[in-house]
Design a protein that fits this description.
binds 2-amino-4-trifluoromethylsulfanyl-butyric acid, three-stranded antiparallel sheet, five-stranded antiparallel sheet, binds cobalt (II) ion, alpha+beta, single chain, Creatine Amidinohydrolase
Length: about 260
């Protein structure tokens, strides 16, 4: 079942999304050489607490997971790309960090992710980061009323293939609203234009491309049951926004708060 959201409900999701954006920005600011992942989780916890928000990540236990998620952010370093745990690992110069964060405020949820390098950014990482962020932008741009979900998926897949990066259709985007993962729709990171659900105003989804630099699409899960990393050791990047399909086109809900357009 897909629940289309009203303008008021979308406004409530925008407020939750602003908390996510603030937490991600705080983590980005604090992420430096020598700083531990556990500390960055604490930074995000404080932003959520100050905003009166709770975490949809903390304690979450999907079918594949052997333990409830122990943090409020996923922190994935280098060849880890999704669901990295907030361990005592201390960041090193040149590490590529992906940060995924959610927040629930007044019963509505936002979910977003950013990736960046700590200290120096290699040319190869810069290319990977740019392509993945570009894929997110292309996916969002395709989310217009009347378009199909396959248009969003295809836009992402095309960017990955053009750049020669590994792409997997597991762990894609998802419906979001009252909960982080609504049962429908699933938003795969590759697909066919003109296929799938027709997008209507009020649809709210998270779009989240994750690319592996290696070009192989294989990944494995660590013994912790959560951390997803490339099998070939190549680095990965992940970007995500929660968006609403509106009459006027796609609207990003996980941006920093700004004055309302009237
Ligand atoms: N953005 C991720 C997703 O949609 C967040 C889930 S992480 C978890 O799957 F820790 F909450 F599982
Ligand atoms: Co998500």
């Amino acid at each position: 079942m897909i629940e289309l959201k009203t303008a008021d409900q979308i406004a409530a999701m925008r407020a939750a999304g602003a908390v996510v954006a603030e937490a991600l920005e705080a983590v980005r600011t604090k992420a430096a050489v020598g700083v531990s992942l556990a500390h960055l989780d604490q930074v995000a916890r404080e932003v959520l607490a100050r905003a009166g928000a709770t975490s949809p990540f903390l304690g979450y236990q999907p079918g594949f997971a052997p333990i409830p998620y122990p943090g409020v952010v996923c922190l994935s370093v280098n060849d880890a790309v999704l669901h990295g745990l907030p361990t005592r690992y201390r960041l090193r110069d040149g590490d590529l960090l992906s940060v995924d964060c959610g927040a629930t405020l007044d019963g509505w949820t936002g979910d977003a992710a950013i990736s960046f390098c700590v200290g120096h950014t290699s040319e190869a990482d810069r290319r990977l980061l740019e392509a993945t962020e570009h894929a997110l932008a292309a996916g969002i741009a395709a989310a217009r009323p009347g378009a199909h979900l396959g248009d969003v998926s295809a836009a992402i897949g095309e960017v990955a293939r053009a750049a020669g990066y590994g792409l997997h259709t597991d762990f894609g985007g998802h419906g979001i609203g009252r909960t982080m993962h609504e049962s429908a729709p699933h938003v795969p990171n590759d697909g066919r234009r003109g296929h799938g659900l027709r997008l209507r105003p009020g649809l709210t989804i998270a779009i989240e491309p994750w690319f592996l630099a290696g070009g192989l699409d294989a990944y494995r899960i660590d013994p912790d049951g959560w951390t997803l990393r490339s099998t070939d050791g190549s680095r990965g990047a992940h970007f995500e926004h929660t968006i609403a399909v509106t009459e006027g086109g796609p609207e990003i809900l996980t941006s920093r708060s700004r004055p309302h357009a009237s």
